[in-house]
Amino acid sequence: MHFNLLLDQSDKVHIIPSQGEIPEGDWEVLYPGIPFYIAQELLREIDNEYSWGSKRKKRNLFRRKKEAMEKSTIKRKILSNLKNHPSLSKFTWQWMSKKSLKETKEEEAEKVKIPTSMEEKEKIKVDFLRRTEGRVLTKGDLQRLGQESNLSYIEILKLCQEQVNEGKGEWLSGLERNRMGWRCQRCGETKVEEWISIYGRAATCPSCASLGSLSSLNTLYRSLNNQNKATNENNGVSRNNTSRNNTISRDDVVIRNKFNEVNTSFAKSKIIFSPRWELTPAQKKAAEEILSFVKSEEPQGQVNSLFEKGFQHKKGFQKEILLWAACGAGKTEVCFPAAAWALNNNQKVLFAAPRQDVVWDIAPRLEGDFPNLSLGVHTGTSPQRFTPSQFVVATTHQILRFYQAFDLIFLDEMDAFPYYGNKALAWGIEKALKDTGKIVYLTATPSPESLQKVKRGKMQLLTLPARHHGHPIPVPQWKKFTGNPDPRQGNAEKVIKNLLPRIEELGKAGPILLFVPQISWVNPWVQLLQEFLPQRSIEGSFSSDPNRREKIENLRKGSFQLFVCTSILERGVTFPRAQVIVLGADHEIFDERSLVQMAGRVGRSRECPTGTALFLAPKTTPAIK
Amino acid sequence: MLQTKDYSGIRAGINAYYFLEVYFLRGGMSVVAKLEPIWQELKALARTFFYTPEKNCLLCEKSSAEGEFCLDCLEEYFYPELPRCVNCGKLIPKEQIKCTDCQVGKGPRGLDKVIALGYYGGAWREFIQNVKYKAQPYQLKKISSFLGNFAISHLPPPHYLIPVPLHQERLAERGFNQAEEIASLLQWECGIPLYSPNPLQRLENTPSQVGLGREERLQNLKGTIGFLPGEAEKLKGAKVWLIDDITTTGATLEHCAYELKKIGVKKVFGLVLAAGLEKRK
Ligand SMILES: [Zn+2]
Ligand SMILES: [Zn+2]
Ligand SMILES: [Zn+2]
């Protein structure tokens, strides 16, 4: 995606997409097109020369207004800057007037289908606004958006530029550089890979490549179009945004009203919240507190008694709350009443979890409890869609695709990989949340950092102790177990013979989850068990298994009696009557947190609240205790 | 894992430490804050002095004591034991000199020898595609010594390196020409001069070559590569390595070689990162 500098009739310089439409009027365009970042730099240079020039005339203190440069001066300045540029001097630069361009552009214009009526035009624009609201889009995204809404790429660029001209959207270069170095504009990464392009220094972000590669030569389109208008950080090109604003037509007001109307129509058709089960008293209390946190506009003062002593609770509006819920306490459902309130107050809600499994687990539960909700599900493997939805469930990585989009974010298992310690995603959440928005963190095992935050009064703390069916977490039993469970060592058969009675015993109560410490153990163990227990349905999976989603779906349906896995299932996935065996529980990979999480898989349902968790190891480790 | 390489490294690390110490004492906090990024850099630098960096295979990320690629990947993608078709560079079975296509005269003409570093498939293909389509030209420098060693042991020394030019429009979009990046690696690694500016020029935007046979490709390319005026004289009688990222039918290489020979270049040797693999029947 390339951009050109455009000099308009009032001697202002703009940056416009090369493939987009050129506005009416007496202007000239600098050719060839260049990456947005380079165009921005050129514009900045001209701006600097402006201010430097006025500094020299500092004697006249009242002469603040910049001296307007003549059109020919600007043109000459830009060309001479280009001539002195180490890389850009190689190009053949020329200013082209509308006349000389008309023919080529007319050819292109023919390819663009022109909407026949005002009404159709209006419909297209409203649709575009709704699909891009709160989004950050790459070139690939814009192309997909075009396909989805049956528009050509050029038409999409035109719509984007229209928003940019009105200050309701902006172009961003993928990475930007200041004195400190490069920064990725999508994920905030500063450790990037630098290289030399034909335009000079360039850089590529390695951190968010899973969302599509992004370099400083790429451009992002970011919608600034929402009720709580975002501040425009982009001072370098502000001229670009403001200059043509004053001519917003009446049609435009109509469209905007229409957009708001469609948007609020979410609220008009009331979101129905019909929970399929009743909350326990403890859950109810927590749900009420979260609801009042979400509703609150005034500072709140509840601090868990544990930390009250010696710490002054900071009076002030709090954006964040931490729900520390015991494993299996039913923390997800606790959030639903608050979510329902937010949805019915026309707020946008995000539920983010670090793992895909959890997202696929929660989406159907939400659909069950909110029967008329338009739910958007975003994971790394689901195709990127732009259908507007008021409630989004996403993996944490996908948050980077949003900008100022949500009023309320629920962040599940905040201490789990990959969120824990990942700066980029913290940055992403900060960006995706509206300025007035709030965050609810959900965790079973809070990190020391988040507890520290609570202690300092930066965040509220809520605890939810009991399991939602009132039964305590099963105390995991440690069974001494000799023999090396590593399937590559010779005595796996001996191990399996020791294991069989346990499987028999637990199998009566429900399906068994057999946790192993290494991916490479999964398939050998599945084979071994299938050999010894041919009458049972046995499967296994691990994080990089391509069929993982399907298998876990089947597991949830109860298709397997025995399921071998690594810690992938350790967080957030629920299914009835589960029993747990941890093989090689003394393995260094299992720390206390993951062992608690694994034991927490046991019996997470109302029908069968009890269950057994067996940790098998030749010796105990501190983590097992 | 603390392995000291040699004492000069330690000394440099200690010096870096003292340098910072002095700044800490003199500067107060504001300077320290400003120095934070430098401090991080220096710490990283010091680490490289004190530790032997852990080497991972560039293709499968397994730790590899062998260097850039682990033994498995070496065997799977680079086949060090297999010869290359002298005519088109393809990887061919042992004891063969030309691939079956070239044996019946369907290969590229006009090149004196062509060699491919590896087989265009799997993780090696992904590596090259990441370089080209995911804005990762910086990955190439990781293979420079591997490529350099391969090139000098299979090709006679040339006077110049000449990369295959890229279409103007694609160059503008991508921001770099991968063939030129590879050539500049070899310039650095083997000390062979890269001919600059590139005497070969794309004259117009060629339609994509994907899905076309060799004859069609040649037809497609006719008149699309030209010669920079004024450079012809200097290249008369020279030996050159013609560099590209991949070759499929050899049509592009043939076309460039034709233009080079036309102005009197004596020998043209082709070098690419990847080509096809012909299995024994
Ligand atoms: Zn990034
Ligand atoms: Zn490898
Ligand atoms: Zn051949």
Report on the architecture of this protein:
Chain A is of the alpha/beta class and 625 residues long. Chain A has four domains: 1-111, no CATH class; 112-174 and 218-238 and 247-268, Arc Repressor Mutant, subunit A; 281-296 and 317-464, P-loop containing nucleotide triphosphate hydrolases (Rossmann fold, 3-Layer(aba) Sandwich); 477-617, Rossmann fold. Chain A has 18 helices and 24 strands. In chain A, the strands form six sheets. A seven-stranded parallel β-sheet of chain A has the order 14-15-13-16-17-12-18. In chain A, strands 19-24-23-20-22-21 form a six-stranded parallel β-sheet, with helices on both faces. A four-stranded antiparallel β-sheet of chain A has the order 2-1-3-4. In chain A, helix 4 (118-132) crosses helix 8 and helix 9 (281-295) packs parallel to helix 11 (331-344). Chain A is elongated and about 90 Å long. The model of chain A is unreliable at 52-65, 227-249, 298-316 and 605-609 (pLDDT under 50). Chain B has helices spanning 7-50, 71-78, 100-103, 122-133, 144-154, 168-174, 178-190, 214-221, 232-235, 251-262; strands at 113-119, 160-163, 200-202, 225-227, 239-246, 267-275. The longest helix of chain B is centred in the N-terminal third of the chain and has 44 residues, at 7-50. In chain B, strand 5 (239-246), helix 10 (251-262) and strand 6 (267-275) form a beta-alpha-beta unit. Chain B is built from ten helices and six strands, in the order αααβααβααβαβαβαβ. Chain B is α/β, with parallel strands linked by helices. In chain B, helix 5 packs across helix 7 (178-190) and helix 8 crosses helix 10. The interface between A and B is medium-sized, with 21 and 13 residues. Bound molecules: zinc ion (3 copies). One zinc ion is lined by residues 184, 186-187, 189, 205, 207-208, 214 of chain A.
